[in-house]
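Tokens in:
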């Protein structure tokens, strides 16, 4: 009860005074809960036996009791120290580690920028690692993957601070639709990354190999191990042949681990990060503009986006994104300001489903936007048509009083098809030409040829008669009249050496 009362007082204490006590109590409560479970299990196990022996038990003689010392529950206020205490991976000693140590320490500005970005996310990652009993140096992995930038995108299309590829992200239930990309989401991507790392450790039983597989792929590491086993070679991380990026992957993490462990030895000055939560989760029940949400929370827009990097659009669709992250002190402020908007519309955007295949200009007219604005807002590339069912973000009018449905918000996608621009061409009919023969020659339908020339679909043309056709501007689809097909004798397969040369080029 005393612990509970103390906790209640902490919740009402000023923000800057409560965090260290909050962390201490959090740790203490976890330990008390664990001990309570153990005691409870023992009591339940002996309950039946105690009941059956109750009649035969004899009173115990008075015994002298002594107190038992309890280890003090001292929680550090420094998050870096908490990470150091949780180091559990074997150290990697190699020249590559020393090379990366020199590289990082020669760039103090780079280390400072990375660590400043990390302060928003690092406490949450450490908490999740400890709950899973995983090594806390894994909290440093986003330094290697993305420099702790949740908006980072690699040349291979990996995204987020944990750098998930699209397919891998889907395998770990990271939603990717027109309105959000959970590969960038702080909570979802961290959950998925730790799930994946646990899976890889279970496969290989070695954290260095698990990390190599995270970078290179589990199949690649498995094949490299199998090959070395056949050759009776070592199967550890440093024994396997692997790409240069993967060779440097664990040494990079080890170098950062060493710098965090002994910053003074490397002449590094790590900015202080307090051992307390940076953000809180706040539920969202109505669609709301991103800019308005930041304003109600009294948070800078860039800071809001840094905590909610999965949002692809200027609006939060509550049915697909039921919560947002806000700085610890801003959650109550947001709720108070939001209550003042009761009954008011919070979102100036909604979703419109394309009823059919549309040119971008035609779709823009239907929704009252300029073509340029529709393209920019929905990332529509040039030379593309909008396919039916595409979920496009458009201005919300009085005709759209309801929020976007869960089906659309959760699964909405935008699909495109190449836009083929056709040009008018007039030709002279050959002897025996018909609507069908010309349609076949120019890879179109007889109905099109009949419509273009205002004749029946089974009509024939006189020799020399003018016939109108429409072909694509690049000539695609039209069968060449000027170039006769090569004869069978002229078609020769290149020799194997020629194929190999072309492939190599």
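Residues out:
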């Amino acid at each position: 009860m005393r612990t509970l009362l103390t906790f209640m007082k902490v919740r009402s204490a000023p923000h800057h005074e409560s965090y260290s006590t909050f962390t201490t109590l959090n740790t203490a409560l976890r330990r008390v809960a664990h001990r309570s479970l153990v005691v409870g299990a023992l009591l339940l196990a002996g309950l039946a036996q105690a009941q059956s022996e109750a009649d035969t038990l004899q009173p115990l003689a008075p015994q002298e009791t002594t107190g038992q010392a309890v280890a003090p529950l001292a929680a550090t206020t420094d998050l870096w120290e908490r990470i150091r205490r949780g180091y559990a991976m074997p150290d990697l000693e190699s020249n590559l580690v020393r090379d990366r140590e020199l590289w990082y320490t020669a760039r103090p500005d780079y280390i400072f920028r990375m660590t400043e970005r990390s302060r928003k996310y690092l406490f949450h990652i450490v908490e999740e690692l400890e709950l899973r009993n995983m090594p806390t140096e894994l909290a440093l992995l986003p330094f290697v993957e993305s420099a702790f930038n949740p908006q980072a995108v690699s040349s291979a299309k990996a995204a987020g601070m944990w750098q998930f590829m699209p397919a891998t992200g889907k395998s770990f239930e990271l939603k990717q639709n027109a309105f959000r990309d959970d590969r960038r989401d702080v909570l979802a991507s961290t959950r998925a990354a730790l799930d994946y790392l646990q899976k890889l450790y279970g496969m290989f039983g070695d954290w260095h190999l698990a990390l190599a597989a995270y970078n290179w792929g589990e199949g690649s590491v498995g094949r490299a191990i199998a090959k070395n086993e056949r050759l009776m070679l070592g199967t550890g991380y440093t024994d396997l042949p692997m790409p240069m990026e993967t060779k440097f992957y664990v040494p990079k993490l080890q170098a950062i681990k060493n710098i965090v462990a002994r910053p003074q030895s490397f002449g590094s000055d790590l900015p202080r990060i307090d051992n307390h939560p940076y953000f809180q989760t706040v539920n969202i029940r109505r669609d709301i503009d991103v800019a308005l949400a930041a304003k109600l929370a009294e948070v800078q827009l860039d800071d809001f986006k840094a905590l909610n990097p999965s949002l692809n659009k200027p609006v939060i669709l509550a049915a697909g994104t039921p919560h947002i992250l806000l700085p610890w002190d801003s959650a109550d402020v947001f709720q108070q300001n939001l209550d003042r908007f009761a009954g008011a519309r919070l979102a100036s955007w909604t979703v419109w489903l394309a009823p059919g295949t549309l040119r971008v200009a035609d779709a823009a007219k239907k929704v009252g936007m300029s073509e340029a604005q529709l393209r920019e807002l929905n990332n529509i590339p040039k030379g593309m048509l909008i396919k039916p069912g595409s979920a496009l973000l458009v201005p919300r009018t009085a005709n759209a009083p309801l929020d976007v449905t869960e089906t659309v918000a959760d699964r909405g996608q935008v699909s495109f098809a190449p836009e083929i621009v056709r040009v008018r061409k007039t030709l002279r009919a050959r002897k025996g030409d018909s609507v069908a023969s010309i349609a076949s020659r120019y890879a179109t339908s007889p109905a099109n040829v009949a419509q273009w020339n205002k004749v029946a679909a089974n009509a024939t043309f006189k020799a020399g008669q003018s016939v109108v056709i429409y072909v694509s501007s690049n000539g695609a689809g039209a069968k060449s009249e000027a170039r006769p097909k090569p004869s069978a004798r002229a078609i020769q397969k290149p020799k194997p050496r020629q194929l190999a040369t072309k492939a190599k080029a």
